[in-house]
Amino acid sequence: MNAPARTRMAAKSIGESLQSWRKLYGISSQELADRAGVSRATVSRLENGDPSVSLATFLNVCGILQIEGRLIDAVDPYETEYGRIRADEELPKRVRR
Fold this sequence. Notes:
Order of helices and strands: HHHHHH
Number of strands: 0
Radius of gyration: 16 Å
Distance between the termini: 25 Å
Shape: elongated
Number of domains: 1
Strand content: under 5%
Number of helices: 6
Largest sheet: none
C-alpha cells in the first residue's frame, strides 16, 4: 500500500502507542495476537505502523487494551467545539462532492 506520508507517520505513532499500552499491561505480542484472533506478525505490523492492517484488527486490539472508549471519543464530532456549535443544526444526510 502506498499511503501518503502523513498517513504513514500517523500509523507509526499509533502503532508505537499501542505497543506501549501492551507493555504497560504486561501482555506479550503473542498473547495480544491470540486474544485479537490474529497472528503475531499482524500485531507486529500494527505496532510498526503498517497502515494496511484492517480496521477490525485495530479496533479489536484497542478493545483488548481497554482504550476503545478514548478512540470513540477522539472521533466524535460532538466532542469538539465546532461539533458542539453545530449540534443544534440539522446536518445533511449525505455530503455531495
